[in-house]
Amino acid sequence: MKMIDVLLGRRLANREQGEQKIGWAAGVPAMGLDGLGSSSYGPEAALTILIPLGAISLAWIGWVIAPIVALLVILYFSYRQTILAYPSNGGAYTVAKENLGPMASLLAAAALMIDYVLNVAVGISAGVGALTSSVPSLQPWTLELCLGILVVVAAANLRGTREAGWLFALPTYLFLASFLGLIAWGVFQIISTAGHPPPLVAPPPLKPAAEAVSLWLLMRAFAAGCTAMTGVEAVSNGVGAFREPVVKEAHWTLTVICAALGLLLAGIATVAHFYGLGAMDQTQPGYQSVLSQLVGAIAGRGVVYYVAMGSVLTILCLSANTSFVGFPRICRLVALDDYLPRAFAVADRRLVFSVGVTFLTITAGCLLVVFGGITDHLIPLFAIGAFLTFTVSQVGMVVHWRRRGGRNTARLAINAVGAATTIVGLLVIAAAKFMEGAWIVIVAVPATIAVLLAIRRYYDRLGRDLSPASGFTLEDVDRPTVLVAYDERNRMTDRAISFALTLSPDVVAVHLLRLTSPEQEEDLAARRDAFERDIAGPVAARGLVPPRLVQIPAPYREIEGPVLDLVERIDEATPGRAVAILIPELALDRWWERLLHSRRAQRLRAALVAHGGTRLMVITAPWQRGL
Amino acid sequence: MKMIDVLLGRRLANREQGEQKIGWAAGVPAMGLDGLGSSSYGPEAALTILIPLGAISLAWIGWVIAPIVALLVILYFSYRQTILAYPSNGGAYTVAKENLGPMASLLAAAALMIDYVLNVAVGISAGVGALTSSVPSLQPWTLELCLGILVVVAAANLRGTREAGWLFALPTYLFLASFLGLIAWGVFQIISTAGHPPPLVAPPPLKPAAEAVSLWLLMRAFAAGCTAMTGVEAVSNGVGAFREPVVKEAHWTLTVICAALGLLLAGIATVAHFYGLGAMDQTQPGYQSVLSQLVGAIAGRGVVYYVAMGSVLTILCLSANTSFVGFPRICRLVALDDYLPRAFAVADRRLVFSVGVTFLTITAGCLLVVFGGITDHLIPLFAIGAFLTFTVSQVGMVVHWRRRGGRNTARLAINAVGAATTIVGLLVIAAAKFMEGAWIVIVAVPATIAVLLAIRRYYDRLGRDLSPASGFTLEDVDRPTVLVAYDERNRMTDRAISFALTLSPDVVAVHLLRLTSPEQEEDLAARRDAFERDIAGPVAARGLVPPRLVQIPAPYREIEGPVLDLVERIDEATPGRAVAILIPELALDRWWERLLHSRRAQRLRAALVAHGGTRLMVITAPWQRGL
């Protein structure tokens, strides 16, 4: 069993494509980690904006979370329709391309790609940040921990979606079970105590209000809370990963994710309101997150607390996985339209689009290294990317239903409401967060689109250059002049000259003189004589045209220049005839053998291919030892 | 001007070889830094062993340094003779090879190579150590400083010996001028005060004796002091770098280095004796090196102190340069005898043996990283390697003069004395330092020799495999079957098929089916029709045998396997006939274009070369845009 099989699993045939598909139970962890994980920082972000209101913030938290949940419901129904209308891989990119044209689709693609990269870096660093604030002794290893988790997640994804999906299922369902259970118990307590539940561990008292309520403050809180909605689009981007019946499995996945997320958001707001939980300043000592206060208030600091908080840490770390599912898929779609290098569209031995996985790993790794593993302040940028995607997708769906016409008025209305609300959301977020980082997205998105367009232009130009002007016209069929790289006679050169003689009667052995020294003149004559005696003689005796030996100096030790000069001279002497250069090459069986051979044959070949001109062929005659 | 020209200088032609050679004034810094720099730690190492004697050590330091200086004189005369006898590159390796046989030469080579690598790591780390003990705020950057200096030294050497030599001349001559001047002034003070010079800065008082004098203690002090002699062999190894008259320039270089080193050793011992300088424990606070005490005692703590100590730091750091001159040369010699990969013997565009320089940089860099930039305790290992080299070289010279016979008795005697003394020195050092690290050398030297022998065996076997069994026998000259990798018709494939038809009438276009989907069957038929109409038709119309199209499935997406299967089938159908595979390849002009193309053509080619068997040729038909 080869090393690569152990690490990445056996290779999979094309016909196994279907077997790698997933159902809804595996789809929730594979595509929902990002969306569900963001419930841990969305409400907290909203409450943080409300800190200046002090205890009054409890009265307003409902007014901030309610529109977010309403937006989530609208998005849920909108995306159900998208999945139905585009049951193949149909995220914002496809929807925008088919309904709004290429520029809108590139806008969606750029927003998505940036979002996915940010998500990996931020998800992992937020998880590790939460971990190190629980276990401060791990603090010095922050970056190492981040990169280690990145590598594990990337490796799992290189094995393929199905196995990676199940690897993440346990913490996801543990998180859902513990928090939905806790919230249910909390709500029961609230009802049974008529709105005055006794907290097991009392949350820190809220400070007196320092500011009056203003619309701007509530808008900013709403914008901050909207980070809870990032990741909802993942299912529509990943529909292609589901097994038959695709639409049903995808709908179920979306339903579970949105329902759980909505319950979590509404539940957290409710419990916060009645138990009196507020956000705390993270830079102050004694800081406790809202979720930590929530678990402590409802369940105390026992086993349940550590299990629940552990599941939060885990799914934050693993929420990066959503990107590893989505990023390669969107890149593949974009690459199939020639906006990205074609390698992004090639399935590897495990049917994974490994170039996309690798690219994502490297970019996210660079972000982590540059920020030293602390990238929390990139979190706000998410919401912008996500809402940009939502908006493009919804507007595309509106156009889709309009074109279809007929009995789709209700569907059109749903997506129109979705589009209108996400546009409003986008504007609010962009306004509220411009200085906090929205400007970065405003730079990065057009830059990404410019790169995508440049790549497309390159392929378009190449396609034009390659397309035949007219029918196939056979050029000259004269046999070519064959040059054979020749140093001294051995089995390898014997075979090379035999091969050359099968191709053409016009064979020239080229001997490159690499060093100049006094004794070389005699040496040269001796070599010429040996060639006449050993090679040319026997060939002539068979009644064939004997090969000639040409000795050319290589004053700068590099061999490409002199060979190219010779090719040019031959080209001028026999215009219209092709020149072939035959290079004998030792076939190396083992990797370490490469260390023992200069790559001269390969370098010469590469230089000839790059600069050889129109009528040149480069022939490699591999020689295997023992054959 | 290209970037590489700015960084490394313009390329040099073979005929410029002579111009890159150096004279003695440049030779002293280029080859003497190691030897001269070791005067800063040799006497200190000897005095450190004598610390238990307290003030009594001053009475004995002369008895330890005197035999070292005597040994140096013997080595000087011995190496003069070696240079005379071997005026081409003739270090211990050549001398041993010619006189003692291959195993002795490999012993010398292994000892030298290990020594050179150690010297780089230890020299740089010792220099940086001295620097950071003067400027403690640099302490946290120890490793970074070490690696930075390594890169600068390596880059200077990649530009070539001459320029690198002059870069190092200033600190070398500054060091010599300041210390020889200081010692002269100190000796003058000693004489003028009849042996009781008043120190400007009094050295710390010596402790009372804790131990009695013993022969073992003096032997250990001698062994420690012998580190001062490392690097003396560098000139004999580097004779080839000198300009004409080679022997004279080399002799002058050796004379300057040995005379300066001898004066420094004797002078330091004399000044230490009369001024009462002793070694201090480096692990204790307030530590001052012997040289620091010496400069302070003679010149006080003024400008002279800082200039002199600065020059010590600099030449310690730069003593690594000796290795960069010597290591590539010894590797080249060993590689010419097939004990190292041949790339070590290839002069690059600047006529430098850059593989050796690079290898040295990487190994020394690894040592530095592994030891975190603190490799001082490797210093003792030097002396073993150096004395091993001395001994092999001297014994070889004795055999040399015996073989020459005649009037060489005096010369034989000199080298015999040299051999005897270095053997004694080697045994003393090995015994005194076995536990301190000599055992590492005893492991590393045979291991290195084993690797060198394995490489030689590989090349010998390859040479036997390649050597023709008999005269050139022309195999079948039937024109080969030519397969052309064919995806869809474009200018590139048009040209490829034209080329193929010039080589053989038997042309087969091979179309690899990468994906399986329902609509593909029709697609395949359409492609076959298009091929018949567009390619085969026009060729047949010219009266030639039309090419065929073969469509083969590639269920695992990799293309090598199916193509190799096809080759095998053709091979069986037409035994004795060669098969050529023609792969059209896009010639890429700019580096970034590679990112936009999968390396399919190159990967296929590499796989065919590696596994293609006996009768296969791989033809690349490069296609350049716009041509």
From TrEMBL, chains A, B:
Keyword Secreted listed: no
MF (Gene Ontology): transmembrane transporter activity
Gene3D superfamilies: Amino acid/polyamine transporter I
Main location per the UniProt record: membrane
Domain of life: Bacteria
Transmembrane intervals: 49-79, 100-118, 138-158, 170-192, 212-232, 252-275, 303-330, 351-372, 378-400, 412-432, 438-455
Cellular location(s): Membrane
Pfam families (UniProt xref): AA_permease_2
This protein's GO CC annotations: membrane
Membrane topology: Multi-pass membrane protein
Key words of the record: Membrane, Transmembrane, Transmembrane helix
Protein name as annotated: Amino acid transporter
Protein source organism: Sphingomonas aerophila
